[in-house]
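Priority: medium. Attachment 1 of 2:
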């Protein structure tokens, strides 16, 4: 009887569809079997790809600020592509690692009982909506072509803070993090909410 009960209680296979429609079940499985590589790779790939694709629009946004620099030259374009790639790689990796560490650290201060691997997995998976947004931006930019320049300057330059605050993907990401922290660290809802608000405020400060 005990073995049958143990088999019954063993976590079932992890399904990404649950992240969209049943995040409570998804993160309850992550708590017992944390996964790090797949969400880390997917999120990193999406952000690096977006930065690479948006490089020409960044050049267009800088043309008024750097009137004496020929931004259309091949050397300058290659320089921007290389710099953007390296910066996006560094920023994405560092932000994911620091975000996971801060999430786990604050959770521990609030008497959380989860492991670092579980907290990191939760944080990485909670960033999937932002990665989806990055891929959507890539598709839209490739579809619109030069017409995307105006939209780019509005979203990423002029109204970046307001666009982030009203971003449904940012809200979705925060909601997933809220559920994930509760599951991974076994803490009350209000503590998880405080952690998410602290992290969200921190992100908005650096926008």
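Attachment 2 of 2:
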């Amino acid at each position: 009887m005990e073995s049958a009960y143990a088999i019954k209680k063993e976590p079932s296979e992890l399904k990404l569809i649950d992240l969209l429609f049943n995040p409570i079940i998804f993160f309850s499985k992550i708590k017992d079997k944390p996964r790090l590589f797949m969400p880390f790779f997917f999120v990193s790939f999406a952000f690096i790809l977006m930065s690479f694709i948006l490089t020409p629009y960044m050049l267009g946004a800088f043309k008024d600020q750097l009137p004496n620099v020929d931004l259309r030259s091949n050397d300058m374009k290659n320089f921007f592509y290389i710099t953007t790639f390296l910066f996006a790689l560094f920023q994405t990796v560092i932000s994911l690692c620091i975000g996971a560490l801060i999430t786990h650290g604050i959770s521990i201060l609030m008497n959380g009982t989860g492991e670092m691997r579980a907290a990191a997995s939760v944080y990485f998976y909670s960033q999937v909506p932002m990665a989806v947004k990055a891929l959507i931006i890539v598709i839209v930019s490739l579809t619109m072509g030069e017409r995307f320049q105006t939209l780019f300057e509005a979203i990423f330059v002029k109204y970046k803070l307001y666009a982030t605050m009203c971003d449904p993907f940012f809200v979705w990401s925060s909601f997933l993090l809220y559920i994930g922290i509760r599951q991974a660290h076994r803490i009350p809802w209000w503590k998880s909410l405080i952690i998410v608000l602290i992290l969200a405020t921190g992100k908005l400060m650096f926008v």
